Amino acid sequence: MIGAIDIGGTKIALGLYDESGGLWEKDVIPTQAQSGADLTIIRIARSINDMANRSGGSLEGIGIGCTGPVYPRQGTVGNTDLLPGWEGFNLVSAVEKVLNTRAFLENDADAAALGEWAWGVGSESRSFLLVTIGTGIGAGIILDGELYRGVDGSHPEIGHHFIDPSGPACACGGHGCWESLASGPAMEAWARAQHPQKFQRNARELCHAAEAGDEIAIKAVEREAYYLGIGIANLVTTFSPDVIALTGGVMSSQHLFIPKIRAMTDKMTGYVPHEQVNIIAVPDNVDAGLRGAAQVWIQNRARQFK
């Protein structure tokens, strides 16, 4: 069995996979990051051991996908508001100690990209991008069958490339980055600004209201599709990948966005073979993160024997 750990700010998904991607057991527990990383690891270990006992299997290794900046080579967690007090914590060493097996770590967006590339819509591609559009915007990049890493093994923050320098301020230090204009909260904030009393709605509710004919919701969806289209067109021009897969809460209403994104991409990417880039939406569910975490183990284990 391959143990899979997908750590988010509010919940942790846990699973056991076999080598072919079959899910044998699954559990979800609250993160409770404020209780401290050490106690969280104990709860993770208890759940995985219980699942392994029920399945009758033994753990070959553990793959971890974790929110926020992480340092895969060191196995540590970076500075993220979603896991207060965890900065510098060696997640890999702690997991290996309590579960007595080897573990590997990746950023959760990179892990999800590995899972979708190996066992999902990217399985026939050499170059693949998985873009998650939800509370923020993140992306994992696979080029020539390898996960792309930046300097010191870092994860590129695609959600923070700049779209409009006169746009909203972002915690990244810039103005008008993609996330500040096209994430779920950005869509919600724009709608509230138009009608503060009426539009206390989340992104999913805005999409439903747009389908019902609400004028402001329709404009919010059109604005969201516009900024998503610009960002994705930039990715097509920069990487010209075989496949760009879009996931996350906003994409639960993909029919409102994909045609407009495709039209804008076709219009703005004339110097690359944009018509050959497959832009598709994939369901946003807990198993996607778990599949990715399992692939973190498989991919890193393979590198050990090259």
Produce a short descriptive summary.
Helices cover 39% and strands 20% of the residues.
Keywords:
single chain, 306 residues, alpha/beta, Nucleotidyltransferase, domain 5, 2 domains, 5-stranded mixed beta sheet, 9 helices, 39% helix
Task: Provide a descriptive summary of the structure in words.
This protein is α/β, with parallel strands linked by helices and 306 residues long. It has two domains: 2-106, Nucleotidyltransferase, domain 5; 121-281, 2-Layer Sandwich (Nucleotidyltransferase, domain 5), CATH 3.30.420. It has nine helices and twelve strands. The chain has helices at 37-55, 91-99, 108-119, 178-182, 184-194, 203-211, 215-239, 258-268, 286-304, and strands spanning 2-7, 11-17, 23-30, 61-66, 70-71, 76-77, 103-107, 128-133, 137-143, 146-147, 243-247, 278-281. The chain has a five-stranded mixed β-sheet with strand order 3-2-1-4-7, with helices on both faces. A five-stranded mixed β-sheet has the order 10-9-8-11-12. Helix 6 packs across helix 7 (215-239). The chain is globular.
Q: What's the main sheet like?
A: 5 strands, mixed
At the fold tier of CATH, the topology name of the largest domain is: Nucleotidyltransferase, domain 5
How many helices does DSSP assign? 9
Class by alpha and beta content: alpha/beta
CATH architect. name of the largest domain: 2-Layer Sandwich
Total domains, how many?
Answer: 2
Number of strand segments: 12
Poorly predicted regions are: none
> How confident is the prediction overall: mean pLDDT?
91
Assess the beta-strand content as a share of residues.
15-25%
